[in-house]
Design brief:
With about 200 residues, this protein is of the alpha/beta class. About 35% of the residues lie in helices and about 20% in strands. Helix 1 runs parallel beside helix 6 (about 170-195) and helix 5 packs across helix 6 (about 170-195). The structure holds 5-O-phosphono-beta-D-ribofuranosylamine (GRF). 5-O-phosphono-beta-D-ribofuranosylamine binds next to helix 1, strand 5 and helix 6.
Length: about 200
């Protein structure tokens, strides 16, 4: 059985990327998937270093280097096609993808979100903002959701979700810290579910 080739898009530290790499090398994705390419939108994204340490091609495609969104998007698509990527994994990628990108990989893009979608998703709901909103509404639980990506923010169907308690005295930071390791479990499991067609 051939391995599914993953293209991982990041903007920052890349701990989810690391979880995916580890799962491909020695975890539930071993023999089933491999990271074929990592793309960051910022040259300083530490995830690029993580990829290189594992001998994985890693590049920066920076919106600033392109005259318009269309040419930027075309480059992203070209890079992923050149590496025969079969599943695009957004892992802390902070740019909204253009319709042309979604169309090029329709039904083949997934994203991790640090809350229980469909709650606390949508425009502006990223990073710390998500956890602030969860705490502000007095939720008793939050979690991690892996979902399909379509044209709208955090809108596609949920593939896998896991719950995490909100504890008294939580701050956005303590809640984020409790959720992040759960994201790291959910991501590889959800990829396995997707590539197994479950
Ligand atoms: C994660 O919390 C993810 O849910 C969110 O951005 C964060 C990325 O963290 N979309 P990392 O770069 O994978 O460490």
């Amino acid at each position: 059985m051939s391995k599914t080739r993953l293209g991982v898009l990041i903007s920052g530290g890349g701990t989810n990327l690391q979880a995916i790499i580890d799962a491909c090398e020695a975890g539930p994705l071993k023999g089933r998937a491999e990271v074929a390419l990592v793309i960051a939108n910022k040259p300083e994204a530490y995830g690029l270093e993580r990829a290189k340490k594992h001998g994985i091609p890693a590049i920066c495609v920076n919106r600033k280097d392109f005259p318009d969104a269309a040419s930027f998007t075309a480059q992203l698509v070209e890079e992923l096609h050149a590496r025969q990527v079969g599943l695009v994994c957004l892992a802390g990628y902070l740019l909204k993808l253009e319709t042309a990108f979604i169309a090029a990989f329709r039904g083949k893009i997934v994203n991790i979100h640090p809350a229980l979608l469909p709650k606390f998703g949508g425009k502006g709901m990223y990073g710390r903002h998500v956890h602030e909103a969860v705490l502000a509404t007095g939720e008793k639980e939050s979690g991690a959701s892996l979902h399909w990506v379509d044209e709208d923010f955090d809108h596609g169907a949920v593939i896998l979700q896991r719950r995490v308690p909100v504890l008294p005295g939580d701050t956005p930071d303590t809640l984020a810290k409790r959720i992040l390791p759960v994201e790291h479990q959910v991501y590889p499991e959800a990829i396995l579910k997707v590539i197994s067609g479950k």
